[in-house]
Amino acid sequence: MDKQQSKLLREKMVLHQLAGRGVNDSKVLQAFREVPREVFVPEPVKEHAYQDSPLSIGSGQTISQPYIVALMTELLEVKPGDKVLEVGTGSGYQAAILLKMEAKVYGVERYSNLAKEAKEKITALGYTIKIKIGDGTLGWREFAPFDKIVVTAAAPKAPQSLLEQLTVGGKLVIPLGSRFSQEITIVEKRAKDEFSSKAVCGCVFVPLIGEEGWNELA
Ligand code: SAM
User: How would you classify the pairing of strands 146-151 and 166-177?
Assistant: First the structure.
């Protein structure tokens, strides 16, 4: 795919898959116009990078459907300079979108090969990110608190560690439900121990495996 093709496909994706379905934050749409998704997709499926679906990135994991990435980004209401924790960095695409929106991004990914490749790709695009290999259900205490937290894997409930590591006034966007079907949910931290939550739409994510998520063998 050459640069011209990529630009054209990005424009179509924004128009039909994102704006056409109700994503209307202009900063989110602009980030999707500018970040080349094919960079984050493995060689065998590069030609499908702008398909309206998730794609395999190896290790049994996926890069999410563009619409879902856009919706979760919009729900986060990212402002320049926000400290954002992303749990489940996977390919690095969601992180690159957040970086394009001028957030400071901290990623946690349990697969070391995915974390390493994501960091290389993001760095090659000229952004700076901190990525930790490990269990993101425990957050990243060293850099907490975070203004926003996005979890891009399915959880049975909002992990307590993530709720603790959110600033008061901050937001957690997370798919909550069973291992096989969830709802994208916004959790807002109103005060130290006071939260409100709202389910936004149905979705299907790979499981969040960890101490405060699903058991790997379940
Ligand atoms: N945000 C990613 C992107 O833009 O490509 C897509 C993420 S993929 C749907 C979910 C990711 O969550 C997988 O890479 C998986 O390895 C990771 N994951 C699952 N449980 C995790 C945990 N406890 N901590 C960190 N990463 C986890």
Answer: parallel
